[in-house]
User: What shape does this take?
Amino acid sequence: MTTSRQRSGSSLAHRPGAPWEALTEITRLISRSLAVKDVAAAICEGVTALLGVMGAAVLRRDQASADLVVVAASGELRALEAGYIFPAGTSVVGASVRDGKAIATADLFHDPRFVFTPGLRARIERLGYRAGLALPLIADEKVIGAIGIVDATGRVFSDDDVKIASAFADHAAVALLNAELFDRERRARAEAEATTRMLAEREAQLRQSRKMEALGQLASGVAHELRNPLTVIDARLQLLERQLAAGSVDVPALGKQLASLQEAAGRMTRIVQGLSAYSRPSKTQPVPLNVRDLLTSASELVAHAAGVRSVSLELDAPADLPAVLADRSEMMQVLVNLATNGIEAMGPGGRLVLRGRVEPAATGTPGSAPAVVIEVEDSGPGIAEDTLATIWEPFYTTKAEGTGLGLSIVRGLVRKQPGASISVESARGKGTTFALRMPSTTA
Assistant: This one.
């Protein structure tokens, strides 16, 4: 007796051109997606409609265990949830993968070619199918999975059915492989992005930790620097108090005293502002900066450290230097770090210069602006030529107690400033100069 399903499969196979038109359309739909589950679902739905069967499933071959894992299913096989495992070599799909060819059967349980685990046999009995057709998915000469097609007992899959399904499997294998490669690349990219974010967070933590460590070292020097203007203010106020009590205030002299007070107060304000800018955790926020003011603030923060080592500190920056676009907190950290390194590299009699100058615009480059060059120059022992290239590497240090993070962080901070770069020139016995180049701005 011929069943309705036998007639359904046969009529589809014998309608001239119909299966191949359907195959072309399904293949086109598959090619639109690069998501593994979407491609597998399209394959299942396409096969089910093309052959008029109870259902279909796409299974991925685990390369380590050779088990077949359900990726997607259609029709009655939707009861096989994604991730369900067909142990290697079991059922018609396992035999198809093992033999590397299409295999059809009218009754799974009465065909001696197939074996089943008790759990798998019970699952098939509950689903109620018996006829099966399985085709290996082969891409790049490697079996990557299988398509399992099922129908009711008695369905006989014809040679045309197998031919149509095999042609579809060839296209499906390539689509599935591309989807898996895309999925693998997407996961790798996501992992790389997560790693990049983690490294950025770690770098920020290290940068802040380094900043706080240096801030503690600067604190005693800042206290000393504040003590001097406070002493001036106290002495001037006592003098004014005595003059007021005696009724002998000299107006011209009073003007000089007030100017002295203003100068001392201004110095204190700059020191406090510089310390605040240095310690502030910041997201890079470039603003126009006065380069001379920046260098003055940095010099005042390291003045005490220079004095302790008997190192002379010089500021060489014209008042009319063009502004630069940069983050003040990060630039303070760069300059204080470089200056502190220079001071620690020198003994008594050493000389540290904080310099600002203009470098003319490049000739022959329309629209190019002059660059502002900020230099930190020391008269220390210098750096050997063969180690100059390694000083920027994380954890490189010549200090007994150093972490080696300083210059690595400095370069990272400089790169965050618009158009900025940093270079170094050094020679044994002639000192070292770090140069920051930044585009000038008229804003």
Remarks:
- The longest strand covers residues 431-441.
